[in-house]
Amino acid sequence: MMALEGIKVLDAASMLAGPYCATLLGDLGAEVVKVEPPAGDETRRFGPRRGDDSGVFVGVNRNKRSVVLDLRTDRGREVLAGLVAWADIVVDNLRPQARRKLGLDYGTVSALNPRIISVSLSSFGADGPYAGRAGIDPVAQALTGFMAVTGPRGGAPTKAGPPVGDATASMLAAVGALAALRAREITGRGQQVDVSLIDGLLHVQAPYTGQYFLLGTQQPRTGNGIDWYAPYNAYRCGDGRYVHLACYNDKFFTNLCAALERPDLAEDDRFASNEARLAHRDELDRVIGEHLGELTRDEALERLWAADVIVGPVNDYDEVFTDPQVLHNGMVVETAHHTGPLRVTGVPVKLSDTPGSVRRPPPGLGEHTDEVLAELNIEEGDAS
């Protein structure tokens, strides 16, 4: 069995954070049905495409079936009511007015199914001065100070590459859903779970916000470095590829000096303590860079790992998805997509007795409408 086997999830969300929450629950064994409007989830039309398929959509929507419903019609609302009655969890990321209009607000869904857990994601929060405002991941990064602490030293504020606000919110929403399931075992009742992108991004900045609350200081942008210890940087090797290494105490710095065949550096007054290394960080980076610049990246990694240095390669995706540890962790899974074999990322949470799995590829638009209607004993017909 899988941990969430028997749990039914209605994915009534679009874009990234909401659908990926439903995907994570599906990874752990839940049965997920994704409701899409006739034109499909917005992300089906985003970014590079192969035929009718978008890389954004297929990256986010494994382990679910797709049903097309037009919720503006009586037929669409009838099917939605059946799905709400069927579900244990419903996930949405609608603004409050749209949620009420479509009958996905907690008052409406709980009247149909008192045990349902309603998980709602938003950019700013369920209520308050910004509730209902349109938002998106980079806006949340900007508002929460995430961009202010990201980017090159002395440079402009920079957003993270991937949508970290969406990804963080999806994980917190999944945690909230699981906590509500546990509470339902005791109370017999469902409840509302609210997660916002800005709350999630504040959550992941805990080391920096802790510094601010304790000392009143703003964390500066430091690029690939950090102001807490040195060395901590990405270094270019002789073949033009990079490694990133860090030494957060004297032990690891001594190991680094041995790997560079410069044990004397550990005794050098400029580098003999973390405080001294920070004070002479630019010179230290130059020394390390000169030594690593004489080695290929693979030679550097072999030597540094052998000396127990904290280091890793700066990989592109071709390297990531052939990396032996990534493959060992099961983070590349081949599925039988409707276009042919398709690789997707695997299940990030490893359970020893009830492991999750990728059981379904990302669905085609409306691929499972008739199948799901039959399971709900709803007469087949045009629901779109």
UniProtKB/TrEMBL annotation:
The keyword Aminoacyl-tRNA synthetase does not apply. Pfam families: CoA_transf_3 (PF02515). One of its GO terms (molecular function) is CoA-transferase activity. InterPro entries: CoA-transferase_III_domain (IPR050483), CoA-Trfase_fam_III (IPR003673), CoA-Trfase_III_dom3_sf (IPR044855), CoA-Trfase_III_dom_1_sf (IPR023606). The keyword Protease does not apply. Keywords: Transferase. PANTHER family: SUCCINATE--HYDROXYMETHYLGLUTARATE COA-TRANSFERASE. This is CoA transferase. It comes from Actinomadura bangladeshensis.
